[in-house]
Design brief:
alpha/beta
C-alpha cells in the first residue's frame, strides 16, 4: 500500500486506488478514524459512531476489491448519515433530549442504498431539536461548531454533516432538507450541498418539501453519491419514477457548459433578512465569471412574498406545537427554550390559519416554477444561499429571535416548495469568519443540469482556501 495516501481523498480517487491495490478500505478507514479523533473533541459533529462496525464493513469491502467484485464505485468509501435517517438498531433522537431512544427497526432508504453499495458507515451526524433550527445547537447533542472558525455556527439542520464534510470525515455525508437544511450549512461550512428534486431520493418518512441529499467537498462526489441514493424504494410513495440518469457525466463537465446559457440572478429574496454586503459581493463575482464564460446573466425580480413565507412558517409552527403537545410535560420541558418560544403563537391559530398556511406551499410552488420556466425561460437561477455571512456558534438561528426565526430562508425555501433541484456551491470567499455559498437552482427534475452548472462553476471560481486542519 502507498504510504501517506491523503486522508481527504475523494470517492473516485479511492475507488481507483482500491481497484489497483494502491490503497485499501481498511487502511483508509484507520486514517480517517485517526483524523476524526483529532477533530471531534473540538467540533462535535458525530453521534453513535461505531468504529468496530465500520472496520468490519471495511474488511468486507477490502475482500470484495481483492476478488475484483466491488458492489459499486462507493464500496469501501467512508460516509456519514444524519441522525434522523434511520439505520437499523440505532435510535433516532431527532436532535432533542425529549425523544425516547428506541432502536430503529430498519434502515431508511438512503441508508439502505449506501449499505447495498458497500459504503462504510462511520456513524450518524448531529442535528438540532427536531431539525427545526439552522444551527448546531441541540438539547441532546454537544454543541456542533464550524471547523473554519469554532466560534461560528455550522448552520443546520444538517449541522454535523456539513461540519464533518468541511473537516474531512470521509468524502460523503448524507443530510435532509425541508427549507434549506442541506444548503444552508453547506454554504457556511464551505462545502457542496445538494437538494435534489423532491422524490429523486426515496425517503422515509416522507413529508411536504422534505428530501435527502449529499454534502461533500466537490460536485463530483455529490454526483457519485446521487448515483447510489437515487434508486427506487417501494416504501416511499412520493418517489419519482425510476430513471437511469447520467450522474457520471457531471464529473466530466467543463466550463464550456456555461456558454449560451440564460441564467437569472436573484439578489433579493423578496422577504426576510437583508443580504450582507460580503454575500452580495460573492454573488456579483460569480455573475461576472459566468458572463465571461459566455452565459447570458440577467437580473430577476423577487417572487416570494411575506404572505407566502409567513404562512408557511405558521403552518410549521402549528405542526411543531402539535408534536410538542403530544409529549409528556416532563419531556416537553427538555426541548430547547427557543423552539418552545417559537411555537407558542400557534396556541392561538385556528383552522383558517392552518389552511391558509398550507395553501402557501402551492402559491410559492407556482410562483417559483413560473419565475424559472415561465415567460422568462431561464435555464438556471443563481442567488445567495443565505443572506447572512455566519453567526455565533451558540445561537439557535441567524436572527437569534423566535419572532424572526425563519427570516434567513428566503432563497432556499422556494426550491423545497416547488420541488426544484438546487445546490449550494462554495464561492471561495470568506465572510463573517466562515465561507459563503452560491445557490444554483434548475427546472423541475433537471438534477443533472444543476450539478453540471455547479461543476462548471467550480472551474470558473478557481481554487478554494486551504481546508481547515485539526487544532494542535
Amino acid at each position: 500500500m502507498a504510504a501517506g495516501f491523503p486522508v481527504d481523498a475523494d470517492a473516485a480517487t479511492l475507488a481507483q486506488a482500491y481497484a489497483s491495490g494502491a490503497h485499501s478500505p481498511v487502511l483508509h478507514l484507520q486514517a480517517v478514524l485517526e483524523h476524526i479523533a483529532q477533530w471531534e473533541p473540538h467540533i462535535a459533529a458525530l453521534w453513535a459512531a461505531d468504529a468496530d462496525a465500520a472496520m468490519a464493513q471495511a474488511r468486507a469491502s477490502e475482500a470484495r476489491w481483492r476478488r475484483g467484485q466491488p458492489l459499486s464505485p462507493l464500496d469501501g468509501v467512508p460516509v456519514t448519515i444524519k441522525e434522523n435517517i434511520a439505520t437499523q438498531g440505532t435510535p433516532l433522537p431527532l436532535g432533542t433530549a425529549a425523544t425516547e431512544l428506541l432502536p430503529a427497526a430498519a434502515d431508511a432508504p438512503p441508508a439502505a442504498r449506501l449499505r447495498e453499495a458497500g459504503a462504510v458507515l462511520l456513524g450518524k451526524t448531529t442535528m438540532p431539536d427536531f431539525g427545526m433550527l439552522s444551527s448546531g445547537l441541540s438539547s441532546f447533542h454537544a454543541l456542533t461548531r464550524n471547523p473554519w472558525n469554532r466560534e461560528r455556527n455550522p448552520g443546520g439542520s444538517s449541522a454535523g454533516a456539513a461540519a464533518a464534510a468541511a473537516a474531512g470525515y470521509g468524502p460523503l455525508h448524507i443530510g435532509t432538507d425541508i427549507g434549506g437544511s442541506i444548503r444552508l450549512p453547506a454554504a457556511w461550512c464551505g462545502v457542496v450541498g445538494f437538494k435534489p428534486s423532491n422524490g429523486r431520493v426515496p425517503i422515509q418518512p416522507p413529508y411536504l418539501g422534505r428530501v435527502a441529499g449529499p454534502l461533500a467537498r466537490s460536485v463530483a462526489d455529490v454526483a457519485a453519491a446521487m448515483a447510489v441514493l437515487a434508486r427506487p424504494d417501494a416504501r416511499d410513495a412520493t418517489q419519482l419514477p425510476a430513471a437511469e440518469l447520467p450522474w457520471h457525466e457531471v464529473a466530466r463537465t467543463d466550463a464550456g457548459f456555461v456558454r449560451g446559457l440564460r441564467i437569472g440572478v436573484l439578489r433579493d429574496a423578496g422577504w426576510g433578512l437583508a443580504v450582507d454586503a460580503a454575500v452580495a459581493r460573492a454573488v456579483d463575482d460569480a455573475v461576472e465569471r459566468l458572463r465571461e464564460a459566455g452565459a447570458r446573466v440577467e437580473p430577476m425580480a423577487p417572487f416570494l412574498t411575506a404572505d407566502m413565507a409567513e404562512g408557511i412558517e405558521r403552518f410549521w409552527q402549528l405542526r411543531s406545537s402539535l408534536d410538542l403537545a403530544a409529549l409528556p410535560a416532563e419531556r416537553r420541558e427538555r426541548v430547547l427554550p427557543f423552539i418552545r418560544a417559537w411555537v407558542a403563537p400557534a396556541a392561538g391559530f385556528d383552522a383558517a390559519t392552518a389552511f391558509h398556511g398550507y395553501s402557501q406551499f402551492g402559491r410559492l410552488r407556482d410562483a417559483a416554477v413560473a419565475a424559472m420556466t415561465g415567460a422568462s425561460r431561464y435555464d438556471f437561477v443563481i442567488s445567495p444561499v443565505s443572506p447572512n455571512a455566519g453567526f455565533p456558534a451558540e445561537w439557535p438561528m441567524p436572527s437569534n429571535d423566535p419572532a424572526r426565526a425563519m427570516a434567513h430562508i428566503g432563497f432556499t425555501l422556494p426550491c423545497n416548495a416547488s420541488e426544484l433541484p438546487a445546490v449550494a456551491v462554495p464561492t471561495g470567499a470568506l465572510a463573517g469568519g466562515v465561507p459563503t455559498g452560491l445557490q444554483i437552482a434548475g427546472a423541475r427534475h433537471d438534477d443533472i443540469g444543476v450539478l453540471k452548472l455547479a461543476r462548471a462553476f467550480e472551474q470558473l471560481r478557481g481554487p478554494l482556501p486551504p481546508w481547515p486542519q485539526p487544532p494542535r
